[in-house]
Amino acid sequence: MASKVGSDNRELMNEQEIASVYASMRSEINQLHSKMTELEMEVSEHSLVMEAIRPLDPSRRCYRMIGGVLVERTVKEVLPAVQGSRDGLQDVIARLGELLEKKKKEVAEFELKHKIKMRRAVDGEAKNDAGRKEGSAQGVLVGPASYPGEDIISES
Questions:
Q1: Residue 75 domain-assigned?
Q2: H-helix or E-strand spanning residue 70
Q3: Are 107 and 26 in contact (CB under 8 A)?
Q4: C or N: which end of the chain has fewer Cβ atoms within 10 Å?
């Protein structure tokens, strides 16, 4: 009897380890997604800056933040630097995309190897849950918004 309990505990521990590894793999994928999104926003900002300063006179004074220090340069000097930064960010995004695809393949292989299936809510269950949430929700009914000092006048 004791040996049976010990083997059940080992199997349970093994399942816990598998779940832990799977969760960490999914977490890595989510982190890669968020980092790529953050970098894509930076690329967008760099592009906006380039569009704004491109039509300006190349000898015009321009300021650029370098390592937390605001530095005075000319448009002619800043434009190539901003473009280089944007291109570097795009290269990093491309490498992160390749790494993301590799991680997704690893997760898919891990799911197949350990027969992991994600539970999805059935449409009927989702509707029932939504109905329960609506019925049990408590709220406060508020009248029309008014600003301080503004009187609400009703015409009767």
A1: yes
A2: strand 69-74
A3: yes
A4: C
Provide the token pair at 123: 């449409």
| CATH of residue 26 | 1.10.287.370
Q: What is the C-alpha to C-alpha distance for residues 46 and 82, in angstroms, rounded to an integer?
A: 6
pLDDT digits (tens, 9 = 90+) for 78-132: 999 999 999 999 999 999 999 999 999 999 999 998 888 877 766 555 555 555 5
- Asked whether residue 72 is domain-assigned, the answer is yes
pTM of the model: 0.67
pLDDT tens-place string over residues 39-61: 999 999 999 999 999 999 999 99
In a domain, 92, yes or no: yes
Domain assignment of residue 1, yes or no: no
- Encoded tokens for 82: 């901003």
Please count the other Cβ atoms lying within 10 Å of the Cβ belonging to residue 46: 19
